[in-house]
Fold these 4 entries.
Entry 1:
Amino acid sequence: MKIKKFGIALMLVATVVMGLTACGSKDSSGIASTEAFTGDYVVNADYVKENIDDIILVDARGEKAAAKETIKGAAALDWQTISKCADRVSGDEGFGCILDPADLATVLGEKGIDPEKEIVLFSSNQEGWGEDGRIAWELVNAGYDDVKIVNGGYNALLDAGFETQEGGVALDAVTVTVDSLATEHRIDTDELAQNYDNYKIVDVRSDDEYDGATDYGEAKGGRLPGAIHIKYTDLFEENGTLKSNDDITKMFTDAGLSEDDQIVTYCTAGIRSAYMQLIMSDCGFKNVKNYDESYYRWCVTQDVEK
């Protein structure tokens, strides 16, 4: 009888444990843990720590943020520095687009962004617009073979115990050659307008922007006609790390997307949408183009939906 009761007790304990496991354990922050995101473009803080001597670490939040505090040994780079921003304003043709190849090569060379090295970028994820993803997207389009972004960004590196400093390091200038820019993952306004019905359009902006707010100087509020709304911020857990591949992929498929679809991502200036393009690629959605002129330009030249 005692043996029988002991066996029943064991079964009850096992059932409780299985139930807790199925619900997901929680980490010290109280957030349900999930399988870590993996992909060709994403690494974690431990990877950075293990490879710090062999990589170029870049603070994609830019020089102003880095001047206050950044990771020790990191260089700082603003996405605007390698984009067409200095000689035009939002809404102009080409505003925010990647610099032309020769100009891009010059700037990257002066900044010491060596194409022979692995480039690892970080930003502030939900606190920013995914600037690390935008710069990574530009480098990939320029022919850089080994580019990564840090899962969890700056806070993840701090949590991993990285030391900090005020101001980014100045890297030695290098020779960079950019013969041409790849086209398979970017699209301009003319091409999108001419072939609009061939694409599923994904708006990664906030709810307010999608509903018509003009918080960033847009010429008018609204969205691209028929756009599917998948927010950039929905990629992340509460602690700023990416959700699991399965959870993110489910979010895409629940929105009506399939891996075979021709997809265009956009936001206000092509920053958050560049990040989204990389993550979609890592989740198996390979036919995705980032519209880097994005809503700033579209709302000036084309009809919008409200």
Entry 2:
Amino acid sequence: MRIAFALVTAVLVSVAPRAARAQRLDVSGGGTVTIGDPVTLVLHAALPAGATVESPPHPRDSLPSSVRLIGVDTIRRAGDGALLYRARVAFYETGSLTSPAFALTYRMPGREALDSVVSGALLVTVMATLPDTAIAMRDIRPFAALGGQESTRWWVAVIAALIAGAIAAIVIRARRRTPARLAVPAESVRPLSAYEAARAHLDAVRRAGWLDGDVERHYEEIAETLRRYLEHAHAVPAVRRTTSELLRTLPDALRAEGMDVELGAMLGEADLVKFARLRPAARPALAFLERATALLDRLHAASASSAPPSPSSVHREHDAIR
């Protein structure tokens, strides 16, 4: 009896470590980042022999509004047969935060039901990016999705108003002409280019008078104008990307003379007003508009001097503005 008990105990002891190591999902990384910048988490997945991964690791629970999952990539298979994944997460709230827990779903041979393994969470310290001259910082408002439809309506309304004004000016001038000149056909009104539409929108921001009571709207509209110009005129996916992601996709023609550095600084300043609730005075806010206008002119001049646009690109640009 003692011999049988000893054999059973030896089998259980030898099997227990294997079962403990049969499945696990370890996470490493974290550290200290600034608000809005992505942090990289490395997931080390060890599964039982013969297991088949059904889907890459994904957050086990729904993410809060202040956390954004940028993507999950498969890095490689480790030497011990485990899988390595890389997850990139961005935080839009300052303080000591925890990363989301990830779950990996897999299937064992001969089983219909799926199994899963869950990782732990890491501590991530998110720092604010306020300049040293800032006096105080209030709590950041919850992250809110951009109003794509409302921005599109505003963009279309500005273009329609400009076209209507141009048509009205042509009609008034035609009525003042002599009968001999009335016989000359009027020039057709062409659609605005991306640069012209962006210029008109910045002029509309100047006349809106948001510096007195809504300086956040002032900065947000200027930053959105620069992003939409890059997307429509240069095919840069700038509207829904973070500032760091946008700068990495700029063409070489727009990086000359430090334009990429200036663009990053301006978009970062607008992010401080939007997310960190920094409230500049009227004079620096107006100077921000002047800098944005000058940068828009430089971006347009650089793209025009680098290479002439093809007819197909011009056609796509006009379609995007319409």
Entry 3:
Amino acid sequence: MKDKNNKTEKLLILSGVIDLGLGLIKIFVGIISGSYALIVDGIHSLTDLVTDIMVWGFNRVGIADPDEDHPYGHARFETFGTLILGCLLLLLAAFLVYDTTARLLTIESYTTPTWPALLAAVLSIATKEWLYQITYKLGLETRSKLLQANAWHHRTDAISSIMVLIGVGCAMLGVPWLELLAAIGVAIMIAIVGWSLAKSSIAELVDTALSDSYVKDIRNKIVNVEGVRGVHSIRTRQMGADAHVDIHLQVDSSISVSEGHHIGEWVTKSLLDNFIEVTDVIFHIDAEDDELYGENSLDDLAPLRREVREALTNAWDSILDNDKVIKMNLHYLENKIQIEIFLKQHDKDLLPQLIKATDHLPWLENITLWNDG
């Protein structure tokens, strides 16, 4: 992790230096060559420097370990940074469209650019495409959406320089409005990228679930774990580069609590081993599909053990001696209770008597006697 963080910081420093140099070069050459589109492209490069600084800051916060105030970690700070980056791109695009449109309306005062603008555009294309390649590669390696977003910002700068190159070339050939049209095209590209980043960040910040296909893959992996009888209520959310999963697992209602929990641990291991994005799994063990009975069951819950024991003792006062009861298991299914009673010994006619004496208990489903003596 430390090595990846060092790589990220070194790349961001390199990117910042290049963006500063390119921005100043394009603005200077744009001024002396009379190319408005190149000046706009230079401003675009300087905004990359600002975003490099933002990426560096939010990345340092995002990789911090969980603490008392942020038990799930700080990955959402990186997402917030991506949202700000997207909004800045949208604002920049709006400014460029407004300014370029104003210049189109006064095309008669347009100055034809000269050949240095072409050289500056070619330099920008080559440099920004190279930055895109190395930044996106590191973004995939570190699973950083913010780095990947910044990589695409580099590519939009490269593509915008291509449009500037074409626009300046056409202007030098006698079609001046094409350079300004190229500037508007750059703005539209920036707006598309900005909207994409902002939209995905907002979706994560409001806990939008992962894609249906991804959840389907998770479900398929879960049901293949031995002991899992069903899975429902799968809830997912994104936390930066990580995915968190909450699941309800249905197991055999007669197994022990510890075995049910152990099955859940195997499900967790299976998901962590097979989905690199999944870093946190919370499971709830169900003895039945509680989606079928859970909605209304809380209004009329079956009683807990102490109340059950008291009701049975009162009902069986003259039938069964409590000293003969070794153990009592309660199975809660469909908001009813199935009771297993282990006795030292019992007569075959005892069970009908116990059932008859408890007919008035609405939560009692059935009784099973076991001879443990």
Entry 4:
Amino acid sequence: MISLDQVVADTQALIRIDSQNPGIQEITCGQWVHDRLTGMGLTPAVMSVDGARSNVVATVSGGDAPRLVVLAHLDTVPIGKGWTRDPLGGEIDGGNIYGRGACDMKGGLAVGLGLLEALIRRDVTPAGDVVFVATVDEEAPDMAGAHSLVASGVLRPTDQVIALEPTGTKLRIAQMGLRWLHLTVTGRMAHAGRAHLGIDSAHVMARIVDRLKAHVAGLDHVDEILGRPRFTCGTFAAGVATNVVPPTAHASFDVRIVPPMMIDDVVPMVQSIVDEVLADFPGATCEISPQGAARPPVRAAEDALIIKGLRAAYLAEQGTALPQGDDDGHEAYTDASMVAALTGSTSCTVFGPGSTDRAHTADEFVPIADLDLVSRVMWRMVSDWPTQSKETPS
């Protein structure tokens, strides 16, 4: 079994390492993980992502069954404001561990480390290789760690992939598609007392946001798991002074889609709304710039070994079916999603400790009970992993 005490201690230690992204602050966290794996007797590979940052990969060798690839990322979002606890303290209170990254996803990272250590200490040879990957840059638009992992050729077509991201210990079998866009509207500056001589870029942008919000809400695409498409204007800035007609406006858009929409449909959809609005503001222009990686919707196959294995292990541990249903989808995009998108694999999923509702918030926490349950399910799944040829398609 995985040692819960060690998982808790590792979660606390990881929280106390500042690995906020943007930036390359995962380096210290990656070194800690490398040293932890080395201390188990493993020889982890350090795989450069962009010269300054590296994924860390370690393998416990097994038999001929398909490999289990366990993904966890090293970075967190910025700490932000509003905390009532030390965000880098790893404090335990009321059965929860608090700190930035507690659930997203240093708790899951600790479970992955615990799984490898349990296999080594118990001298267990798993049915198939168990490959642990700690990635960088998951919280950034480019998801450079996942892209580098796929480009490196480390993954195989038959690999069964799980990201131990926060899901409230529910199975997340599908993920929404996601496209980030930056828009710049250019109008014409004028004195506010002679506003009719200018073109109010803020007004133009506001009209685009309003119409796009209504358009996305009116789309008839409804996925049985993921629900409806979603649109958020995340940032909006315009103008130079209160008494000046704003010459430029900037906004960032978050557009989340569901099948049958394709990720390549997003920019043309936004462009059509922009064109409609610009027709009402002669002389105004708008530039649309996609940001980061395109992230199409993905879904694991019901008969994928990783899905069947998780369900069977959860049932064996809890005596009930692994929770699923209308909330079975996942709004956030994970390394597992990106691996699926880049490779076409239908054997990638997400299951982990902590709730997505607590991720990226002040006073973020992960319940110790979740760490325990996910540890037990992962150990059971690896213990019961069926003997199967590595060449068997998933």
